[in-house]
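CO-FOLDING WORKSHEET

Operator: S.A.
Ligand of interest: nicotinamide-adenine-dinucleotide
Run index: 260
Mode: holo prediction, single chain
Checklist:
[x] sequence pasted
[x] SMILES validated
[ ] output reviewed
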Amino acid sequence: MSASSVIVVTGGASGIGAACVKHFVRRGDTVVVIDLPGAWKPERMGVPVAAVYEGDVTDDQRLRELVDIIEQKHGAVTGLINCAGILQHRLPPEQLTMTEWDRVIAVDQRGTYLASVVFGERMAKRGAGAIINIASITSTRSVPLHAYAPAKAAVLSITQCLAAEWGRSGVRVNAISPGYTLTEALQAAIDRGDRNPDDLTSQAAMGRLVDPSEIADAAGFLLSDAARAITGINLPVDAGWLAGSTWMTYGGIPPARART
Ligand SMILES: NC(=O)c1ccc[n+]([C@@H]2O[C@H](COP(=O)([O-])OP(=O)(O)OC[C@H]3O[C@@H](n4cnc5c(N)ncnc54)[C@H](O)[C@@H]3O)[C@@H](O)[C@H]2O)c1
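OUTPUT RECEIVED:
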């Protein structure tokens, strides 16, 4: 993709989305953010984005308005990164209300699909574009997050279905599955004592968290011409959590070898 690319990042005000925004601004792209009202903090970001639009990815009408506004003002959108997402509290199913379940599905699953369709149908008509859906390592594993994990599994299915739908129309659709990524939200959860950093890192092959910039680097690759034959994949960026998380059954991951 050339320096004149127009990239839309949903959920670009924070965390992984913000790291993607920085990555593509530095690369010289026109970067447009869609996020909830009040989410964008210009003083925190300090990067010259082309525009920030208030929008909720669950709101069909607003997203359809935004695609018109963005394409009129900034040109044809060539890349979309769906980072908007919410977590859920860890609750047994008996305590997880259907209201919370519906909300997680609405944002993480439906919102990802809706934004993909609203922007992707324009890309397909022009015969060019690339979409990245941010899924999660939980999309392929059992975890005690009974709304979030199924929603993220659906994101992988959405990715493959749309990749096949638009493959001959020049639109590539891929997913990235971040492992535990040290965003401000995760840092706050660690600071509050809600998450134990050792629990997050002990099962990763590399024994560490992922930095948000490492997700952005992968997004940079998947939106670039270097990935021109890649569509419908799920790229885990997880410091080896998927590879290492079953080793507990065998006593855990071995320590680093002594260096000579
Ligand atoms: N941080 C991690 O460890 C991790 C791991 C795996 C997957 N993920 C996924 O990465 C994505 C980004 O997560 P993050 O950790 O950067 O979280 P974050 O909370 O820092 O960022 C999420 C952004 O999405 C926005 N958002 C939330 N609901 C929205 C809505 N309805 N419409 C528009 N914007 C909305 C928020 O305002 C925020 O700016 C999410 O999909 C999350 O599930 C994160």
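REVIEW:
The chain is about 40% helix and 15% strand.
The mean pLDDT is 96.
[x] output reviewed
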